[in-house]
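Quick one: co-fold with 2,5-dihydroxybenzoic acid.
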Amino acid sequence: MQDQDRFDTLGRLEDLPQDYRDELSSKNLVPLWPSLRAVLPPGTPARKTQPTYWPYAAIKPLLLKAGELTPIEKAERRVLVLANPGHGLEKMQASAAMYLGMQLLLPGELAPPHRHTPNAVRMVVEGEGAWTLVNGEKCPMQRGDLILTPTGLWHEHGHDGEQPVIWLDVLDLPLVYYMEASYHVEGPSQAVKAGEGVKSYARGGLRPSPVFERSNQAYPMLRYPWEDARAALLEMASDAFAAEAVQITYMQPETGADAQNILGFYALMLRPGQTLSLPARSPAQVFHVIEGQVKASIVDSSFTLSEADTCCAPGYEKVTLSNLSAVQSAFVFIADESPLHRKLGVYENRG
Ligand code: GTQ
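Sure, here it is.
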């Protein structure tokens, strides 16, 4: 029998007598065959994630307005969520596993301490003088910095500067919520530890080697300064070894694993005029421009991303990124669901 025949011949719910259907329902039973193709579609999964573009110019005035409308005490986290219409806006998800939010902190404000099961990172978009305190480590927030607040770690945000600070939050909240494992705990303000953890891993390939005992911290590095990531990309690009794609992965510096368990984080440099075609891989992706102007072609959509603009792509689709400048390099922050897909054994690269 041909596959198409098999597809056509599965029985429908309406083919069953109503009294039989009612009896199934009353016993909390459901026939599989009418829904089999929906949950196991042929060849490629069904994806609710739509290519979606969120220009910063549209977000910023609305976020500043939220600053006037809603005091921090009434918000705790003053965030506008970048929601994918394919999932329904009320679901507050960018993809199956990723949540994106733009967060505003005004001078003098404090976002109170809490910890939660979802993992979060911050990508700093604009403004000077804010900080995030993560498990007692004070992480200054500067444009392009990536700061981790992994699962279970206490965090609070403060702002000693003069201008509004805005950053992009990336969380695995939709996944953790779906797992019925999402919750938070409030707590007292943390004591600030001396020093900066980032200094222990100031150069690639070199880690501190304690004489007595290795620290067994799951998250030894919490802040990845943009200055360092950018310099690493420029060095890579200038070297004769440089691969076609000048890209780095934010990693746990002691193990070389991804920086967090569920989502992966990367920075990509596009040389002047460069076009890069990314293969169709199973995880969904988010692109956020740190510097430059980039065209992103995703399925039938084409987005022109300026600085601080964000877009997302469903999994199993090719994505083409083009640097629109012929003279300046472009820098893109990428988040994806690769660590999750690899751990679950469903990761695919279809080329
Ligand atoms: O800053 O801790 O966008 O708890 C969503 C939930 C940010 C945060 C979000 C959060 C935070």
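If it helps, The mean pLDDT is 95.
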